[in-house]
Amino acid sequence: MVGNLPPLNALRAFEAVARLGNLGAAGRELHVTHGAVSRQLRLLEDDLGVALFVREGRGLRLTDAGRQLQDAAQAAFVRLRDTAAALRRGPQASALVLGCPASVLARWMIPRLDRLARDLPDITLHLSAQERDFDAGLTGLDAALLVAEPPAPREWKVHVLGSERIGPVLSPRYAGHAALAQAPTSRLLEEAVLHTTSRPQAWPNWLRQHGLEPARLQLGTGFEHLYYLLEAAIAGMGVAIAPEPLVADDLASGRLVAPWGFSDATGQWWLAAARGNADPRIPRLAAWLQRELAQP
């Protein structure tokens, strides 16, 4: 099997260039010369028989094959780093490695870590931000906290923590706040709303629930990740669609308002683990997370 892999040094150079966008930055990260990185890329392209980059001005742009390899290489290196970190911690640390989407980690999980430590003092977490979808094996993780739609992969044992609830939110600093705060939901069709490419169906699904035609929706500024979308809403850039738990603290503080409330969506909050994982901490963590999500 090892013989079928591309040269590993070349893969490492490719991943760095794909992530950083140019040869010089990759060379500095890897502590090798610009020319050495270039030679590794040529070696990898020769081995695979495909072009991975095309020149674009002074930079490089990934080809379709390059993007495909980037996804696989980044996932593999992340898993290797996480596994190596767990091994370095050693069995005495016995931290439970929990993966979360970055927005869930930053806006919901981290603010509750003090309470978790008080309520479950024997459970130590190692939190891993996940930018991509979780793989079926949850590689490198003991469990994953996420929002998803059934059915779950057959390889997972899922603890359902609650229903997903979403709704439009905006800041009192937004120029259109006064007009929107007392308006019916149909008024949103006159707004160019903020949106995220990671949840493209959030706005259409919410509009259908409220008897509005998604085709009339005007999309304004888009963001790759939900975290940035919510930061933009707090900054007063416009109306965003958000899961209720991720904005609960902002609503309580007045940084955001939700004039039309929240309604059940098609997703669920899950704590997922590999089906064969019998770690007794996982159901206890699931029960705690379920209670936290039920808090108003």
UniProtKB/TrEMBL annotation:
Keywords (alphabetical) are: DNA-binding, Transcription, Transcription regulation
Q: Does the keyword Transcription apply?
A: yes
**One Pfam family hit:** LysR_substrate
- Protein origin, superkingdom: Bacteria
SUPFAM superfamilies recorded:
Periplasmic binding protein-like II, Winged helix' DNA-binding domain
InterPro entries (alphabetical): LysR-type_TF_proteobact-type (IPR058163), LysR_HTH_N (IPR000847), LysR_subst-bd (IPR005119), WH-like_DNA-bd_sf (IPR036388), WH_DNA-bd_sf (IPR036390)
Q: Which GO BP terms sit in this record?
A: DNA-templated transcription
Q: Would I find Transcription among this entry's keywords? A: yes
Give the HTH lysR-type domain ranges: 6-63
Give this protein's Gene Ontology molecular function annotations.
DNA-binding transcription factor activity; sequence-specific DNA binding
The text of the family note is: Belongs to the LysR transcriptional regulatory family.
Q: What is this protein called?
A: DNA-binding transcriptional regulator, LysR family
User: Where does this protein come from, organism-wise?
Assistant: Pseudoxanthomonas indica
